[in-house]
Amino acid sequence: MAALARTAASTASNSSLEEVLGAMAAEIQLSPGIAGTQIMTFAPGGDRLQLMGSAGFSDVETFFDLLMASRDRGAELATLRSMGERRQCVLPGRRAQMLADPNWEPMHAYVSQLDWEDFVSTPLLSRGKALGALNVYLAPGPGATPVILDFLGAMAEQAALAVDYATLIHEERDAVRREERKRLARDLHDSVVQHVFSIGMQAKALGGIARRLTDPLAPRVDAVATEVTGLVDAVQRDLRGVVLALQPSVSAKLGLLPALHALAEGIERRHGVSVDLAVDPLLEEDVKEPAFTEDVYQIISEALHNAVKHAAPTLVRVSAWRETDRRRLRIDVVDDGLGVPTDAAERSGYGLVSMRDRASRWGGSVAVTAEKRGTRVRAELPVPYVGAEQRDKGTA
Ligand SMILES: Nc1ncnc2c1ncn2[C@@H]1O[C@H](COP(=O)(O)OP(=O)(O)OP(=O)(O)O)[C@@H](O)[C@H]1O
Ligand SMILES: [Mg+2]
């Protein structure tokens, strides 16, 4: 009960979910008879499990990879079962069973670190939905007694509360950020853009007046006025870009596929270039993380714009597809244009940097390579959400 009170207190404070669940795992671990503790949750907005708290095990980093490797060999994961059935799942003698099963071979060394026998997976339930699971590895002894099972049930409830709370905060922050950006865009548009516009009008008027004067300085004034007009145009273009970038994203408004089609059509119309678009039709259905979708859209948009801006191509082929396990997204934007100059890195504007930032935010990367004719921009991103089919196959 002291453990409950302590974790309840930390849930209410401002710590991150990972800190809270990490502390909770450490607390649970203090209870007699528990050799190892793990708390897993789904990533916010997604369906991919992540290890959020672990105690007892020394090498936490490799756990998930080993688990996935076992799953791929056909091992049955109790975590998935407890979450699927939405009830506590007790597996007496689980350690011996895992060690005897070749499908679990990748995990053999890992689970042998600790002295344990039985395994209990308790789903973290909130409003009938499984948000994750609390797994414990019980030391040899009385096993999963009703007292322990009750205790784990109570801790799982607490953990589910913490996850719920963190999800709420995440959504709230997102909403606040969106509002703030909209406000900034509006303010910029209403004040700065309008003032710059008037400066442009005044400069044009000044040029008109200068051209009607006979004063010897008049041509000079006209030249300055023309220069100011040009500068104002450039500033306005930049500002328009900033205002647009601050608006709720086009991919969020339209959905990724329609947004990409609109983008491709716009480029074809304005630049007379053919754009061939091939995008995994299930991507949108599977990926529910708006920030990811937006990054995918913006990476494609920048690569496409770079092609038409720098390479004078006749055709740009855009494809976005996932590898067979659907966990990695590959984006290719290939043009048949002039090719990247060797000093592209030095002239690098904001575009390449921004594409790389957007990819690396998800642990991905961007490579620009020369084709026999033209350029290939390839971005690879781990997908933050794996769809229903993948989920049913089992993630953990
Ligand atoms: N598809 C392409 N074909 C030929 N050259 C390219 C292509 N993509 C990029 N480049 C070269 O790489 C440079 C860097 O691109 P980047 O997008 O970073 O900057 P930019 O397009 O010049 O400016 P910005 O994107 O900031 O408006 C470009 O200036 C251009 O020389
Ligand atoms: Mg660019």
From TrEMBL:
SUPFAM superfamilies: ATPase domain of HSP90 chaperone/DNA topoisomerase II/histidine kinase (SSF55874), GAF domain-like (SSF55781)
PROSITE patterns membership: HIS_KIN (PS50109)
UniProt feature coiled coil, ranges: none
Tree of life domain: Bacteria
Keyword Transferase set for record: yes
Pfam families, per database record: GAF_2, HATPase_c, HisKA_3
Histidine kinase domain boundaries: 296-385
The protein's name: Histidine kinase domain-containing protein
Organism, scientific name: Streptomyces griseoruber
Phylogenetic classification of the source organism: Bacteria, Bacillati, Actinomycetota, Actinomycetes, Kitasatosporales
